[in-house]
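> call design_seq(struct)
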């Protein structure tokens, strides 16, 4: 099949449809397939549905073995005035074992502030004391088709909000604005998600497992953008991305809920 460079960009921006099976994700389509449908909603093929655990959580299997669902971390987070932690309710498609365990519910409104108080109070060791730089809650991915920086503007809101700042953000400055890229020092706190001015955010935090699965196509999309001639980028930005960005402002869906 012949795929044009433009198709490749569209495909590479996206990464593959996902379906949630319990806490895991199974990729249903690859980037090339995504190009045939095109982006209809922001990050349509990166489903936020995995459970982002509070900072310091053991790897998922060990975490589930140790967490007793006491809710102490949630209460600590409330006292710290972040209210980032909620417990998994019966309506989520998760294994029974994950029911009533803590997760970061909605990073668009309530990201983790990395105060690192909850691990200190976890009674079972399901959350371990950790330096905030070593937290591995997830990985933040920028949707290049929506981010203002990648579409001819200068924004920088995400990088200013990030507690790890310069260590995490790389910039590619050029005639196309100030273009951010989030590297793997990201700890997945979600502060950038909250502070992105685009309606609902142009950033999504995915679980470590999900990131491993989509990393290759995501990175190749980034490289594709960097190598693209200005004229081609111009056409994509103004014929495709701008209408989508405008539409984004009107979307009310809350994917993290
Ligand atoms: S580190 Fe602080 S802000 Fe983050 S989940 Fe724990 S208590 Fe809440
Ligand atoms: S404080 Fe620890 S054991 Fe209690 S719900 Fe939170 S992670 Fe689980
Ligand atoms: S890039 Fe976003 S999710 Fe990652 S550490 Fe910075 S603010 Fe947190």
């Amino acid at each position: 099949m012949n795929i044009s460079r433009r198709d490749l960009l569209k495909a590479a921006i996206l990464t593959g449809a996902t379906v949630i099976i319990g806490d895991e994700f199974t990729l249903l389509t690859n980037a090339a397939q995504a190009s045939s449908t095109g982006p209809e909603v922001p990050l349509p093929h990166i489903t936020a549905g995995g459970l982002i655990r509070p900072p310091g959580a053991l790897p998922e299997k060990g975490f589930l073995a140790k967490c007793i669902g006491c809710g102490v971390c949630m209460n600590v987070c409330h006292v710290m005035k972040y209210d980032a932690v909620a417990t998994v309710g019966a309506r989520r498609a998760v294994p029974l074992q994950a029911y009533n365990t803590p997760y970061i519910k909605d990073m668009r409104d309530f990201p983790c502030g990395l105060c690192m108080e909850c691990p200190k109070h976890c009674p079972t060791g399901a959350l371990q004391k950790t330096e905030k730089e070593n937290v591995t809650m997830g990985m933040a991915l920028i949707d290049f088709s929506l981010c203002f920086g990648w579409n001819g503007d200068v924004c920088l809101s995400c990088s200013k909000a990030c507690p790890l700042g310069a260590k995490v953000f790389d910039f590619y400055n050029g005639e196309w604005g100030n273009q951010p890229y989030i590297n793997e020092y990201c700890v997945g706190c979600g502060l950038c998600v909250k502070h992105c001015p685009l309606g609902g955010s142009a950033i999504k935090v995915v679980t470590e497992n999900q990131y491993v699965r989509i990393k290759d196509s995501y990175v190749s999309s980034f490289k594709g953008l960097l190598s693209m001639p200005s004229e081609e980028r111009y056409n994509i930005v103004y014929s495709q991305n701008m209408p989508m960005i405008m539409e984004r402002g009107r979307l009310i869906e809350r994917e993290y809920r």
